[in-house]
Amino acid sequence: MSCIVADCDDHQFPPGCGFHCGIKLLKDPDGKISLEVPVKGNLDDPQFSLAPLIWKAVGHFIGNIVAAPFRALAHLFGGSAGEDLGAIAFDPGRARLLPPEREKLVRVVGALAKHPELKLLIPAHYDTEADARAMKRAALGRDIGRRAGFAAGEDDEPGPVNIEDRPTRRALRAIFAERFSKAELDRLRTEAEAKARAAGQAPPSVLARVRNIASGAPQVLDSREFHQTLSRRLRGSQTLPANALAELAQQRALAIEAALKAAGADASRLARTIAEPSSDAEAKQVTARLTLAAH
Question: What is the pTM of this model?
Answer without folding.
Answer: 0.74
